[in-house]
Amino acid sequence: MEVNIHMKKKFSLLFLACLFVFALAGCGGGAKEGSTSVSGKKITVGTDASFPPFESMSPTGDPEGFDIDLIKAIAETQNIEVQVKHTGWDAMMAGLEDGSVDVGIAGITITDDRKKSFDFTTPYFTAKQVILMKKDAPAVNKVADLKGKKIGVQSGTTGQFLVEEHLGKGYSGLKGFEEVAGAIEDMKNGRIDAVVADNAVVKKFMEQLKLDNVNIIEDTSAKQEQYGIAVKKGNKELLDKLNKGLTAVKENGKYDEIYNKYLGR
Ligand code: ARG
């Protein structure tokens, strides 16, 4: 048969089109065997890996910690594929709202205000704000006693909200940091007097940084806080799966295993 130049062109176009279709199909085959991802895609988990023992950066640059193990364990029970990304605190919150982040896990306290923007799983950890101060500083018992002092907090966290509750919004001694570690650094160097942050995290930093000239002060009036895993408001499909997974890991012993690994004494 005679094949003219136009037919040749047609055949090669057809061939390219077939290749393209095969390549697309092949990509889909890359997903883990048997895994179903919610609405057909890998779930992006955002975190702020500056909050040990809940999340920090491993030496290889991947987020690691209690929250990371927990979300991976939860995902496994639900056959969800997850990818954990260090986004930072503010970008995690923004990402949840704009859809670039599906799940936020970062020791996030469930608050009424946040519930307006996000949906949370059932609580998975109980925390409290504490005050970190140098031992030689005049004794205080509660956040209200810090009036007149320079106080460091991670911006946009419940530590900030607690200080504002007692000393007023716009309190001039309040200094916001991107990460808790920055606030602790400033306290060590005498640029601020105190840090207010979550108890287990402050304790972990004390150990890691070998801070022995500081005290942790528990304000007995500070309310207990509950950590929850956040999704975009209304993402019921994903929230239900996370809640199911959380129940499963609490029942199958995995939660306790993770707890003991990162918080066990
Ligand atoms: N529990 C506090 C809050 O929700 C602080 C959380 C900060 N987490 C972090 N990964 N930096 O406001």
From TrEMBL:
Signal peptide positions are 1-25
Alphabetized InterPro entries for the sequence: Iontro_rcpt_C, Solute-binding_3/MltF_N
Arranged from A to Z, the UniProt key words for this protein are: Signal
Solute-binding protein family 3/N-terminal domain sequence ranges: 42-265
> Residue ranges of the Ionotropic glutamate receptor C-terminal domain?
42-265
Q: Name one GO molecular function term.
A: ligand-gated monoatomic ion channel activity
Any matching Pfam family: SBP_bac_3
GO cellular component annotations, sorted alphabetically? Answer: membrane
Name of the protein described by the UniProt record: Uncharacterized protein
Protein source organism: Aneurinibacillus migulanus (Bacillus migulanus)
What are the leading ranks of the lineage?
A: Bacteria, Bacillati, Bacillota, Bacilli, Bacillales
